Amino acid sequence: MFLNGLKHNLLKTKVNKTRQKPVQTRQVACIQTVGVLVDARFFEEWSGLKKMMDNLSQSVENKIVFYTENKEVNTTENQIALRAGDFNFVGGLKNSEIEAFVKKPFDLLLSYYSTENVFLDFVSAQSNALFRVGVSEDMMEFNDLTIKTPLNQIDVFEKELINYLKILKRIK
């Protein structure tokens, strides 16, 4: 219990240090690959997220990383489960799939969670994504675009996201 709190605080400190760094300008053309971060504790149905991801890009490299507290979770080829145990006690990643996700320069990273989650925040902050979109105003330092919508209204979020991506000439 104590060690989990220590790990949580170390990750939060790393996220806050990343927030203080100046934002690097990232150039991106049209969206080819999409990464999604989501907190599975607040989602019952995944079909809306998958549909949105497919509407944005048909790439086989698209991935969903979902935070869960369950030990055993069924994942598919494009889903990666993230747990507190995937981090060591100094705030480093132990899961090679998550490391690969962080290093991959996704054209679009969607942070589709609204409550603070230090584990998802860490992955978002460390990601090499070229363009980031979120729903939480708490992560505005990391996101290039924030679209505040309720999590259960994926279709509204998708419609607004597509409108903004067209304006920014990220999609056709």
Q: Could you give the count of β-strands?
A: 6
Q: What is the first-to-last residue Cα distance?
A: 50 Å
Strand content: 5-15%
Describe the global form: globular
What is the overall pLDDT average? 84
Q: What composes the largest sheet? A: 6 strands, parallel
Tell me what the structure shows:
The protein is an alpha/beta fold. It is about 35% helix and about 15% strand. It has helices at about 1-20, 45-55, 95-105, 120-125, 155-165, and strands at about 35-40, 65, 80, 110, 130-135, 145. A six-stranded parallel β-sheet has the order 3-2-1-4-5-6, with helices on both faces. Helix 4 links the parallel strand 4 and strand 5. Helix 1 (about 1-20) packs parallel to helix 4 and helix 2 packs parallel to helix 5. The N and C termini lie far apart (about 50 Å).
Blueprint (SSEs and pairs):
Layout: H1 2-20, E1 34-39, H2 47-56, E2 63-67, E3 79-82, H3 96-103, E4 108-112, H4 118-126, E5 132-134, E6 145-146, H5 154-167
Parallel strand pairs: 1-2, 1-4, 2-3, 4-5, 5-6
Helix pairs in contact: 1-4, 2-5
Write a short abstract of this structure.
With 172 residues, the protein is α/β, with parallel strands linked by helices. It is built from five helices and six strands.
Keywords:
5 helices, 172 residues, six-stranded parallel beta sheet, 35% helix, globular, 6 strands, alpha/beta
